[in-house]
């Protein structure tokens, strides 16, 4: 079976393509290169020893999506990463997010449901929980009113998929990521944020390498042990392997009435200061940072209850925060050479 990976030149997508190829799947990538580059295709090729098929397509172009499925008529599995994902940008430009993240999903599902069977894996986010009341966060935790249009597109996307699964031959799994970090051990692929990084780890590595003057820690007055926010930082390679597990699960299941949901995290919460201490330990660098005011929209704490992913999906995170930060640092040093 050929598998389509949309956003396959992105951070999580590229690592997932590698793990799919390692497991013998035949992969074709769609990416519009709006937040990635063709160098990533070279990086993937250097790891797996062959270049996956690649099509540069804007998934908002319904006709182009249709043509793709005509050309690649043997695709019956789709892992859908492609989406705009900057929380702050989504507040300023909601229609960009609703058009890009929702219409692309609809066009993919319309094509997949024409097939005798379809397997669909959706890249969702723990952001759908908002600030959950109970830690660790289980899949049954209530979905909170979205704090951003970006988060809303993930919630709407999940609802669309649930409605389609009920009345079609599509089986689906929704994967709610916590905080993906790190880089492949080969250091041939990693995170390539464009412009000023919004996320913590790329800002740390860019500060350590001298690209950024200083890291701002957004608040130290939260109700946590050291006052800084807690997150569940999951190594991107562990996250990629979970997608292969999910695809195999779909391929072995008869048609189901409801898409399964899995939280993907390590189950361990780390504060911002924990991350800084871990980075300084693995890099040997002293990080220049200062505490500033809170960032609007941040929640205090989020880390995953991993029981369902462990026991039902048969997947466990194996790599640690130190492993992730060490690989992220090696990657930063390599791309700035
Ligand atoms: C982590 C912690 C910040 C930068 C976001 C999206 C989520 C998902 C992952 C897509 C927070 C602190 C950060 C900085 C800091 N994306 N921080 N200084 O906000 O948990 O999640 O990315 O799915 O949907 O919301 O990740 O890396 O931005 O922040 O102090 O320069 O680091 O306050 O506590 P976040 P993050």
From TrEMBL:
Entry GO MF terms: UDP-glucose 4-epimerase activity
Pathway: Carbohydrate metabolism; galactose metabolism
One annotated Gene Ontology cellular component of this protein: cytosol
Gene Ontology biological process terms, A to Z: galactose metabolic process
Keyword NAD carried by entry: yes
Annotated catalysed reactions: UDP-alpha-D-glucose = UDP-alpha-D-galactose
EC code: 5.1.3.2
Span of domain NAD(P)-binding: 4-326
InterPro entries in alphabetical order: NAD(P)-bd_dom (IPR016040), NAD(P)-bd_dom_sf (IPR036291), UDP_G4E (IPR005886)
Cofactor(s) this protein requires: NAD(+)
Signal sequence bounds: none
Alphabetical list of Pfam families matching this protein: GDP_Man_Dehyd
Stored PANTHER family: UDP-GLUCOSE 4-EPIMERASE
Binding partners and assembly: Homodimer.
UniProt-recorded name of the protein: UDP-glucose 4-epimerase
Species, as recorded: Flavobacterium cerinum
Organism phylogeny: Bacteria, Pseudomonadati, Bacteroidota, Flavobacteriia, Flavobacteriales
